[in-house]
Every structure is written in structure tokens, then in C-alpha cells.
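sry for the spam today, last one i promise. C-alpha cells for design, 61 residues
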């Protein structure tokens, strides 16, 4: 996984943290978003990965 994808996912979390996403959920958030980014690059499991990040959209602002 590239450092830029990891950095982007962390920036998303940082932005969402300002919208009250619990810090204890950081690992689950990162797992879901890194899997989503990976699915976009590989073209595999995009539907499942997109569904896994749905719960985080309420924090997007």
C-alpha cells in the first residue's frame, strides 16, 4: 500500500475527528478506508469495500 493512500486515509480521519468520530474507532476506520482505496486500485471487491465505509459518511461533514 502506498504512503500516499495511507496519508490520505489519515487526513480523512483527521477531518472526521473534527466532526466527532470517536478516536477509539481509528483502527476500524483506517481498515475500512484502506480496503476501499485498495479496491479502487485493484478493481476487486469494490461493492463490499464501499459498503464498509458507509457508516463513516455521517462524520464527513
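last one done:
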Amino acid at each position: 500500500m502506498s504512503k500516499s493512500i495511507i496519508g490520505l486515509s489519515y487526513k480523512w480521519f483527521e477531518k472526521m475527528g473534527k466532526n466527532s468520530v470517536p478516536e477509539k474507532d481509528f483502527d476500524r476506520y483506517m481498515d475500512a478506508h484502506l480496503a476501499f482505496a485498495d479496491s479502487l486500485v485493484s478493481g476487486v471487491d469494490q461493492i463490499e469495500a464501499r459498503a464498509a465505509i458507509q457508516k463513516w459518511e455521517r462524520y464527513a461533514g
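The chain is about 65% helix and 0% strand. ok im logging off now
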